[in-house]
Amino acid sequence: PEDIRVYEFAEKINHPISDVIKVLFNLGMMVTKNDFLGKDEIEILAEEFEVEVTTIDPTNAFNYEEEYVEAESEEHLEERPPVITIMGHVDHGKTSLLDAIRNARVAHGEAGGITQHIGAYTVEQRDKKITFIDTPGHAAFSAMRERGAQATDIVIIVVAADDGVKPQTIEAIKHAKASKAPIIVAVNKMDKEGANPDLVKGQMAEHEVSPIDWGGDVEFVPVSAKTGEGIDDLLDNILLTAEVMELTANPEAAAKAVVVESSVEKGRGPVGTVIVQNGTLSVGDNVVCGKAFGRVRSLINDQGQQIKVLGPSETAVVVGLNEVPAAGDIMIAMESDKEAREYAQKRAEYERQKELSASTKTSLDELTALI
Ligand code: GTP
Ligand code: MG
């Protein structure tokens, strides 16, 4: 609730910003349009403008999580691989970079160079794993964050060295900063004539992404998705950043995974690409996943192989759900089929309520989601 600004509230209730400010001013509160509103202020405003405001606790949606995911005692925690998202301006080379990394690092024997679309994949560098989420688009990224499903440990912002900072680069910076994930800048297309990495550094610094060699705290790695130059450096930088973060999970716990992509596939039905955040997901597990539930029929890794178990930060396509989950949904392994079904029903009911309240009232939850 503290995340709602005056102008957003005004927009939401269809009143001029000045009216909202006036009401608060008359009560002795000086605010400007960008100030955040507290719960009390929202209540006062709701009464004044005769709108009904419901407080929906977003964590309700995940109550199955609270019941099932116990606080981990430190002794069970083990190091886990970092999960990376690549963002950047259109045509700056996100897809090319993901392909270059995958082609350079994925185990051989695969159809060389042909990259069919996959939601996420894991590569190895110096015997350490790194998981990449295929660029989900900024909207999907924020949707995941809003659902409390922080799927990314480190954000890589790609900037073409011959084009510099562009509107979607700035968007990417905003999303990365909001997610609090450390940023690494990949200065791509270094092979091109007119590549100017210093210009990129200067422009990024203007947006508070300051290069380490300029006294800042962000690593800028020159790369070329075309020639493969710098890819090794980029992966090493990811590992270094991850090491400092001390990312851990408990492989013994009940599985908790986040959906990064979903679809209906011929012969497989509803499927979701997940990344395990804690525990180990196994074939045969009963799972709830948002409104969906089911029994894990098979797990297919990023190389199309059937696997039996999926550990922390690893990724696979889960087959066996009764309906398509949404990106950002949390999948939890449960004791029984009955439980999974019940939690899925509760979740569906919650969403139905939320929709109803959204159509008739202004919900705080929705206001927050606007940011
Ligand atoms: P969108 O998904 O449309 O936002 O683009 P993207 O960021 O995924 O860029 P993509 O990988 O599709 O690359 C855009 C164009 O730049 C393609 O024509 C690539 O071949 C080219 N390109 C990408 N990386 C490099 C590079 O390192 N060097 C050169 N010369 N061209 C590159
Ligand atoms: Mg692309």
From TrEMBL:
This is Translation initiation factor IF-2. GTP binds at residues 88-95, 134-138, 188-191. Residues 82-230 are annotated as: G-domain. It is found in: Cytoplasm. It comes from Sulfurimonas diazotrophicus. Residues 79-248 form the Tr-type G domain. The gene is infB. Belongs to the TRAFAC class translation factor GTPase superfamily. Classic translation factor GTPase family. IF-2 subfamily. One of the essential components for the initiation of protein synthesis. Protects formylmethionyl-tRNA from spontaneous hydrolysis and promotes its binding to the 30S ribosomal subunits. Also involved in the hydrolysis of GTP during the formation of the 70S ribosomal complex. The chain holds residues 295 to 665 of 873 of the full protein.
